[in-house]
Amino acid sequence: MKTLHFEIHSPENDDISKVASILKDGGIAAIPTETVYGLAGNALKGECVKKIYRAKGRPSDNPLIVHISDISQWAPLVKSIPESALALAEKFWPGPLTIILPKSDIIPTEISGGLGTVAVRMPSDEIAKAIISACGFPLAAPSANTSGKPSPTCASHVTEDLDGKIDAIVDSGECSVGIESTVITLATDIPRLLRPGGITPEMLTEVLGEIEIDDAVYNKLHEGAEAASPGMKYKHYSPDAKVLIVKGSFDNYKKYIEDSAEEGDVALCFEEEVKQLSIKCITYGRKDDPSSQAKNIFDALRKVDEEKAKTVYARFPENEGIGLAVFNRLVRAAAFNIIEV
Ligand code: TXA
Ligand code: MG
Questions:
Q1: Is 171 helix (H, G, I), strand (E, B) or coil?
Q2: Is residue 195 in contact with ligand 1, taking CB distance under 6 Å?
Q3: Is 65 in the pocket of ligand 1 (CB under 6 A)?
């Protein structure tokens, strides 16, 4: 398949309607959002949704997020919208929050991976909103990476994984958040955070009162355990190299590397630290700036692969606020390998 490439930097660009035509004809296209690039298709057509799974190589029991551009598109997708959901939407939409509710009958089974619920999000990215509006229907969109690879935060990441497998790729530059949306379910008695992201637990608690944080946010699922968010059970964001998170002060991290690193190994550290380390460094943001870490972590994990390193020594991110999301992604890339020094 020949993939068409568009460069769009304004919601008024004429190519928006070309991309919408591709989607209206049942095609699939990678589009920007403020979190990561998404691989979009008509959310109301099972056969479009199937194409998305195929292109990504994604297991069919891992459900997709449905993207809307107007609040009026939400009600038809779900059984009902409780007060708590409206309060969240009012505060955080458009933006990096995904809300799960019991699904209505118009949601194809392919999207929900056999669950009785559907995840919905209204992105804030202007190009994403313009494309959804031009389509006139909601778009199913998982991250536009090959399943298991780091999520794409610029169009070249998408091209690396999916060129020749999808109808179009829209390039609008780097994503501003850089980590996928926060996912919360309101289909449980107490609202439950399934995936941390740009909207932090503290921000959610302010609106909802009590929330629970799913075990899988911090910990590896036990063999055979049922995942509340099926995405959490799959191997994720994994570079080919072995990633080891080294938790401790910078001095101890440096010493650990000096004692253990072998030829060709890489340090995954913060920008300010490069000059003090004697091995090849790939940086993921600035030291006391979790937002910059979120924005850079996926690109850094892709660069690690380009280096063909055997072992990658990663700095431990501060795991609070948006840092919790950074930690959650990095610890999966490291297959939960953490060493305290
Ligand atoms: O920021 C984002 O959320 C990006 C952009 C493109 O919007 N999308 C994204 O989609 O990250 P994806 O498919 O890579 O991740 C969706 C996550 C998965 O972990 C999936 O298991 C979970 O949300 N999910 C989706 N629907 C669900 C449902 N009904 N119940 C539980 N988990 C669900
Ligand atoms: Mg994904």
A1: strand
A2: yes
A3: yes
pLDDT in tens, 198-231: 999 999 999 999 999 999 888 887 766 777 777 7
CB within 8 Å of 89: residues ≥ 6 apart = 71, 74, 99, 122
Kindly tell me the burial class for residue 258, based on how many C-beta atoms sit within 10 Å of its own C-beta (0-12, 13-18, 19 or more): exposed
For residues 314 and 244, the answer to whether their CB atoms sit within 8 Å is yes
Residue 291's pLDDT band, with cuts at 50, 70 and 90, is: very high
- 250 C-alpha to ligand 2 centroid (Å): 31
Query: Looking at residue 21, what is its pLDDT?
Result: 98
Summarised one tens digit per residue, pLDDT across range 168-200 is 999 999 999 999 999 999 999 999 999 999 999
Predicted TM-score of the model (pTM): 0.96
Count of CB atoms situated within 10 Å of the CB of 224: 5
| Rounded Cα distance, 274 and 61, in Å | 42
Q: Is the dihedral of CA 142, 108, 213, 335 positive or negative?
A: negative
Does ligand 1 come within 6 angstroms of the Cβ of 64? Answer: yes
242-340 is classed CATH 3.40.50.11030: yes
* Contact between 112 and 65 (Cβ < 8 Å): no
Taking the centre of ligand 1 as the mean of its atom positions, its distance from the CA of residue 150, in whole angstroms, is 14
Q: Quick check: CB of 103 below 6 Å from ligand 1?
A: no
User: For the domain with range 4-217, which CATH number is right: 3.10.180.10, 3.40.50.620, 3.10.20.310, 3.90.870.10?
Assistant: 3.90.870.10
Q: Give me the pLDDT at residue 234, please.
A: 64
For residue 180 and ligand 1, the question of a CB distance below 6 A is answered with yes
> What is the predicted pLDDT for the residue at 16?
98
